């Protein structure tokens, strides 16, 4: 439980807390430390856009195995991935924090490197996180990179083959509908990742995490309410949507807190869809492969849903 709580707190407050501490350090006798860090930060500013600095030592920390076992989290491989290709994994659903995505692809707790030998996973997240001192180093050590065009273009064109970029396609909009018992993805109008795949000839890999929506409860604001209006404004101008959510308390499951509920999360990696390289893909090309991707995701969900506690009648809602 402590291993999970440390990550949740890091995700929520580490960047802001370290920024405040460094600014305070400027006003103390230790001001030189802050000056040296910010000077180095200026020289190192673009490193996240080139894949960052992953650390196998950090990815193999024992704390991530405790993190895995708390829920527990598991990674299911359905097909081999060849190292001569690059890949874009579409990860669904977002959930509140994407805990399955983090554990499976930014750590070695579920042995992703052994299950997909020769494949380097890069979990893509908000670029704003890499403007936060110290937090950026923590994220990069796990192989996490900014989810922007410059970074993805670099990894798919100048970093060799065997790269797998994991994009949580639904993003902030999908997190707003995250609630236990609901299997819904925001995908129908999300086509940018397909265009990037076509431009670089990177195969698309549908990925679904059963249980991702079960670990937190959230206050859902109805469309047209003031709460949803505030969330959409944050999403539009800042890139994330603030959620009012809760898990369990640290000492009791009957109280509210930030610790997620210990519900199983199973991430199933589907069969890759072979994508041709088209320097200037047309809208017709994008629509064709986007439709193929949606169909493959629904088939993946239907094939595995009963294995992970869902009834045969459960339907994946694609918005």
From TrEMBL:
<keyword id="KW-0012">Acyltransferase</keyword>
<dbReference type="GO" id="GO:0005811">
    <property type="term" value="C:lipid droplet"/>
</dbReference>
<keyword id="KW-1133">Transmembrane helix</keyword>
<keyword id="KW-0319">Glycerol metabolism</keyword>
<dbReference type="GO" id="GO:0019432">
    <property type="term" value="P:triglyceride biosynthetic process"/>
</dbReference>
<keyword id="KW-0472">Membrane</keyword>
<dbReference type="GO" id="GO:0048471">
    <property type="term" value="C:perinuclear region of cytoplasm"/>
</dbReference>
<keyword id="KW-0444">Lipid biosynthesis</keyword>
<dbReference type="Pfam" id="PF03982">
    <property type="entry name" value="DAGAT"/>
</dbReference>
<comment type="pathway">
    <text>Glycerolipid metabolism; triacylglycerol biosynthesis.</text>
</comment>
<dbReference type="GO" id="GO:0046339">
    <property type="term" value="P:diacylglycerol metabolic process"/>
</dbReference>
<protein>
    <recommendedName>
        <fullName>Acyltransferase</fullName>
        <ecNumber>2.3.1.-</ecNumber>
    </recommendedName>
</protein>
<keyword id="KW-0808">Transferase</keyword>
<keyword id="KW-0812">Transmembrane</keyword>
<keyword id="KW-0443">Lipid metabolism</keyword>
<dbReference type="GO" id="GO:0006071">
    <property type="term" value="P:glycerol metabolic process"/>
</dbReference>
<comment type="pathway">
    <text>Lipid metabolism.</text>
</comment>
<keyword id="KW-0256">Endoplasmic reticulum</keyword>
<keyword id="KW-0963">Cytoplasm</keyword>
<dbReference type="InterPro" id="IPR007130">
    <property type="entry name" value="DAGAT"/>
</dbReference>
<comment type="similarity">
    <text>Belongs to the diacylglycerol acyltransferase family.</text>
</comment>
<dbReference type="GO" id="GO:0050252">
    <property type="term" value="F:retinol O-fatty-acyltransferase activity"/>
</dbReference>
<dbReference type="GO" id="GO:0004144">
    <property type="term" value="F:diacylglycerol O-acyltransferase activity"/>
</dbReference>
<dbReference type="GO" id="GO:0005789">
    <property type="term" value="C:endoplasmic reticulum membrane"/>
</dbReference>
<keyword id="KW-0551">Lipid droplet</keyword>
């Amino acid at each position: 439980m402590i291993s999970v709580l440390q990550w949740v707190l890091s995700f929520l407050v580490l960047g802001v807390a370290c920024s405040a501490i460094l600014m305070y350090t400027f006003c103390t006798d230790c001001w030189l430390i802050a000056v040296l860090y910010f000077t180095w930060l200026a020289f190192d500013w673009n490193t996240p856009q080139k894949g960052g600095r992953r650390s196998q030592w950090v990815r193999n920390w024992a704390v991530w195995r405790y993190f895995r076992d708390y829920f527990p989290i598991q990674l299911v491989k359905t097909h081999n991935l060849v190292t001569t290709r690059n890949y874009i994994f579409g990860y669904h659903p977002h959930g509140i924090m994407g805990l399955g995505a983090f554990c499976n692809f930014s750590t070695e707790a579920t042995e992703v490197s052994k299950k997909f030998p020769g494949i380097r996973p890069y979990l893509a997240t908000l670029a704003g996180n890499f403007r936060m001192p110290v937090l950026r180093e923590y994220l990069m050590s796990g192989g996490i990179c900014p989810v922007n065009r410059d970074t993805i273009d670099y990894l798919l064109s100048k970093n060799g083959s065997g790269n797998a970029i994991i994009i949580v396609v639904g993003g902030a909009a999908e997190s707003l509908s995250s609630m236990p018992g609901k299997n819904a993805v925001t995908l129908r109008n999300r086509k940018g990742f397909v265009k990037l795949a076509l431009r670089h000839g990177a195969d698309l890999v549908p990925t679904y995490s059963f249980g991702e929506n079960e670990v937190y409860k959230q206050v859902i604001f109805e469309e047209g309410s003031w709460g949803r209006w505030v969330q959409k404004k944050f999403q539009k101008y800042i890139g994330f949507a603030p959620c009012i959510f809760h898990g369990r308390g640290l000492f009791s499951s009957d109280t509210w807190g930030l610790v997620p509920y210990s519900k199983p999360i199973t991430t199933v990696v589907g069969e890759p869809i072979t994508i041709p390289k088209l320097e200037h893909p047309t809208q017709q090309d994008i629509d064709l492969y986007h439709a193929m991707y949606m169909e493959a995701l629904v088939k993946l969900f239907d094939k595995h849903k009963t294995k992970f506690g869902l009834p045969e009648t459960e339907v994946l809602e694609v918005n």
